[in-house]
Amino acid sequence: MSTQKPRHTEDGALYRTSDPIIEVRDAEVVFGMDRGVSRVLDGVDLDVQRNEILGIVGESGSGKSMLASAMLDAVVDPGRLSGRITYHPADRDPVDVLGLSKAELKRLRWEDISMVFQGAMSSFNPTMEVRGNFVETLEAHDYDVEAGLERTREILRDLYLEPERVLDSYPHELSGGMQQRALIALSLVLEPDVLVMDEPTAALDLLMQRSILQLLEKLKQKYDLTLVFITHDLPLVAELADRLAVMYAFELVEIGPTEEILRDAAHPYTRSLLNATPNIDSGLEEMRPIEGSAPDPVDVPTGCSYHPRCPMADETCVEDDPEFLRADDGHNVACFHWQDAEEAVPFVLDGQEADR
Questions:
Q1: Using one digit for the tens of pLDDT, what is the confidence trace for 165-212?
Q2: What Rg value do the Cα atoms of the chain yield, rounded?
Q3: Contact criterion met (CB below 8 Å) for 327 and 267
Q4: What is this structure's pTM?
Q5: Please, where are the H alpha helices in 189-324?
Q6: What is residue 120's three-state secondary structure?
Q7: In whole angstroms, what separates CA 173 from the centre of its chain?
Q8: DSSP E strand stretches across the chain
Q9: Fewer beta carbons below 10 Å: N end or C end of the chain?
Q10: What are phi and psi of 137, to 5 degrees?
């Protein structure tokens, strides 16, 4: 198994944004297993820009959800998180997330950085009305319950829900889309700065997914939010995100402005991921699934982890781990041969190979 290193830009500086609200540095998560050490997050460096919408994409099992958990120091036992996670609030000193006490971490997870997990049905206590879930959260954080419920009603109205109907219902009495929107309202009730969403629309139909994306854009503006949206559905998040971060084999391989990545992706995996995704310009029969499978976390290939599936791989890729290089301003890629990716992995359009 390769020993991965923190990824750097070609000038030796870690990739940075101008005004980060969350900084992730050399984040690593390992699980001890009978058959070896499972590394499910591998030396990730990432900045989340204040007030942006950052989409994190990749195949299932690429480490996206583990990165989300790492941002909140919420990796479950027996997983072990190392590295550095720094939260930069606007009105106080930077916060070392991994150095917080349990009480401090509890406050951070709801009051500063809140998370919406996949599966709203399992997120509410099914034995109490939805109102009780909100009251319980407000009381646990010593918030004024009446003021908190008034804020709840406002958020529910913003999400096109009838507040009293939702609050007086048990979770099972609401549709999947209503439950998901109520969960978003719950995540915002303590006025966090950052909302991390892990596959929040995975169980919903296409129409409801699009509806929730539109609502998220509205909420971002009204409540001055930073959004981190994690999904395997690249076209879905591309409609929402300012930037995209692409993960493969538990590490980042490309990050940059959404429009630029959709137009001119520099990593062969990103380009293959785009070709494997249905779109309105090419039919299902013209999709190109990525050959091979993602690596076992106990046995990640040496060198570039993508090399067994990459049409551009050579001996350098097998032996060495590529550093992050600058493909363009604000666009970074971890590939030795990124300048040849356009020719090696052309985009598919209208059934023919073409550039976007």
A1: 999 999 999 998 899 899 999 999 999 999 999 988 777 788 888 888
A2: 21
A3: no
A4: 0.89
A5: 206-223, 234-238, 258-264, 268-275, 315-319
A6: helix
A7: 30
A8: 20-33, 36-49, 53-57, 80-87, 95-96, 113-116, 194-198, 226-231, 243-248, 251-257, 325-328, 331-333, 348-349, 352-353
A9: C
A10: -65, -45
